[in-house]
Amino acid sequence: MVLLIEKVISGYGGDSVDVTLACDIMMDFESSIQPAIYLAEELVRRGYTVSMMSPVMSVDVEQRLLEKGIKPVNLRVKLFTKSLGLSLTWFEAWGWEASIRLSSHFAGNDSSASINFSQMIALPSQVWYLQGSPSVALRDIDKELPTGFSVAYKILKPLIEYFDEKLISRMRDISALVVANSKFCASMYSPFGVKVNEIIYPPLDCLTFRPSTSSPSSNYVLTYFGKETKSSVVKRVADAGVKIKAFGSKAPFIRRELVEHPNIEFLGRVTTSKLLEVYSNALFTLFTFTHEPFGYVPIESMACGTPVLTYNLQGPSEYLTSAFTGWLVYTDNELVQKAVELWKDGYPPHMRLNCIKVASKFDVSSYLEKWLKILSNIL
């Protein structure tokens, strides 16, 4: 199979660029792209010439970057899965880089300072920001994958783990400093010989994520549907009579039995204003996951004043406190039992205020302060 590459980067290599931030596929500014965007914007405000590099960018992203004073560097990698959803496109781009160094080959050599937020461009960098290992994630979510995806993963698992280790080792060797987005994320990379120098949790825009009402309806439980969701547990909670609203845009990974369940209202992909509304009015947010290095859903829910019920492990366990900002359990049975109990009996109102207070510690300002401290010696 031949992958066609069209490298049409207007002006790339001709201008002097002070700072280059490498990112994964940029079709929007959501999730794993947010940390790089906030840092790029701050560097522009401080007078640096900033570029953002990605294997693939949408036209909208390129335009928005230009409006922010950031130079887009779109490697324009041609991917076969582009029409099949972002998750598969992400995996394909990662696979080409891990196996034949595709994106990094076309990235060229840049003399600017580089900060790598990507898992699919092995760019020599002053700082590499870890956000999760694909092979570890797939190992965790395998049981919840649709049958076709699960069968494909089992066949490809040895290759995926081999190439992931190979790519991580390469990126480790060309990075001067390594920062992880959580303690759990740092632990994922330890078996690969990666020494993490600093933990910087992802940023939360507390000016945006805040309660949309002072009188929550509290007549439903909110959850998220994605490839990391433990669908069977959500169904058990709904079967027990709990009314659930769910959001999510990763259609291939959402089971029909959930979408068609009488106690589940599936909202699909929602706007930010709608998301704030459903976070703020929920009784609590149910977060069943198989793999989560950090967890945007729980921290966004807390910022909107809504406690979270989830597992006492991985990223969410680092900032959630049982009976203070939510509830942490160890098993699926405990989670179902607690969800039903909360649905029937509720919880103390002051927990909503606790959530807002704790979430404020993850505000963008705190995130940028930590980054600027690290970069002061580099830039």
Overall strand count: 13
Identify the strand order in the major beta sheet: 3-2-1-4-5-6-7
The third-level CATH topology of the largest domain is Rossmann fold
Q: Could you give the order of the helices and strands?
A: EHEHEHHEEHHEHEEHEHEHEHEEHHH
Supply the number of structural domains: 2
Radius of gyration: 21 Å
- Bulk shape: globular
CATH architecture of the largest domain: 3-Layer(aba) Sandwich
Task: Determine and state the CATH class of the largest domain.
Answer: Alpha Beta
Mean pLDDT: 92
| DSSP helical segment count | 14
How would you portray this structure in words?
The strands form 2 sheets. The protein has a 7-stranded parallel sheet with strand order 3-2-1-4-5-6-7, with helices on both faces. The chain has 379 residues and is of the alpha/beta class. It folds into 2 domains: 19-203 and 364-375, Rossmann fold (3-Layer(aba) Sandwich), CATH 3.40.50; 221-362, 3-Layer(aba) Sandwich (Rossmann fold). It starts with 18 loop residues before the first strand and ends with a helix. Residues 1-16 have low confidence and may be disordered. The protein is built from 14 helices and 13 strands.
What are the SSEs and their pairings?
Blueprint: E1 19-22, H1 34-45, E2 50-54, H2 59-67, E3 71-74, H3 86-100, H4 102-107, E4 113-116, E5 125-130, H5 134-141, H6 147-173, E6 175-180, H7 183-189, E7 198-199, E8 221-224, H8 231-239, E9 244-247, H9 256-259, E10 264-268, H10 272-281, E11 285-286, H11 296-303, E12 308-311, E13 326-329, H12 332-345, H13 350-359, H14 364-375
Parallel strand pairs: 1-2, 1-4, 2-3, 4-5, 5-6, 6-7, 8-9, 8-11, 9-10, 11-12, 12-13
Helix pairs in contact: 3-6, 5-6, 8-12, 11-13
